[in-house]
Structures are given as C-alpha cells and as structure tokens.
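[Meeting: bench + compute handoff]

Bench side (C.D.) handed over the final construct sequence. Compute side (W.E.) agreed to return the predicted structure before the next meeting so the bench team could plan truncations. Sequence as handed over:
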Amino acid sequence: MFTNREEVLENALRVFAKMNYEKASQMEIAKACGLSKAGLVYYYPFKLDLFVAVVDKYIFHTQQLENKFQFTASSFSEFIDQYVTGVENTMNSLVSLLDDGNNPYGCSFNFYYYHLLMQVRLYYPNAEKKIASIFEQNYQLWKSAIQRAKEKGEIRQDVDVEETASMFWQVFFGFSFEQSFFQGVNIKQLEQKLHSIYSLLKA
C-alpha cells in the first residue's frame, strides 16, 4: 500500500494523541502507517521531527484564527454564534481524524486532542511561546469584538473590555477542557454559556 507524507502525519497524530510521545516508538508509528521502520525514517529520520510536523499541522496551523473562523458578524451576538461555529467545525474535523475506530482508553476524542496539547508543552521545542501566541490571538479576538460592541452601544459602557475578554476566553477554554473528560464538547451548552455572559453585559 502506497503511503504518502500526509498519511504519515495523520497516522502519527493518532498514535501520539492516544499513546504519548515517550511510548510511541518509531516502530509503533510505522506499523500504524503500514510502513517498515525504514519506510517511516525515509519521511522523518527522527521521532521528534515527526512530532514537530504533526503539532505544526494539527495544532499550530489548525488553531490559527484565519484557519478556524470566518466572521461576518454585525453584532456581538452574531460574533458569538460565528465563534462557536468555527469551534464546532474545527472540532469535527479533528475528531474525524482521531476517530479511526480505535479508542484504547474509552475517552472522548476531544480528550485525546487535549492529551496531545499537554505533550506539546513537554516535548515541542520552545512550545511555551507558540502556545502563548495562540491564547493571545484568541484573547485579542474577543477584546476587539467586545470593544466594537461597546462603541456601538450594544453592551454597557461600564464594561471592562480586557477583563471581559479574559472571561469569555477562559469560560470557553475551561468548559471545553472540562467536557473533554466526558463525552466531548457540547456545542449547544457552550453557545448557551457564552450568550449567558453576553446577556449580563447588554445595555
């Protein structure tokens, strides 16, 4: 069976997410790819090279705002809806990659993605700066949307833009992480929580 670089990355993603970096040997990854170890080494000579490539594609590239969201919102309420849609589409895409019928620990596939993210902090070179950049982008996104809503009179003028942006981002991230331990993110509940915060801010 012919295997290309894209298939190697997809299979390695599943191995790293469901196993972990230390346990995932090159032989284990090669087996998942339908390759010999020599065949895997042809694409990625070192396990760290492969891990970095997986993380770059499925975390850092995927989580870039321009690859995740498409905003045409004219109100903050619509912004929330479009934010949740972007989250849902990204989540469904990643879950479809991770759900290959193999669920060794009976976890949600969202959990396996967070498991991979935890490994990034441990094994990806200079990971802290790149993760901080993702978080900062999301914070700035919320901050800009809240500032616009305040300027348009959609929310109260006494709203602290920076604190409110942090609250929205932290509720999203905290809820998503919590739900990953169970059945995965409930999009309807996420949408309800974000709109509940918005209702407290309305002018």
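W.E. noted at the follow-up: The mean pLDDT is 96. C.D. will use this when planning the next construct.
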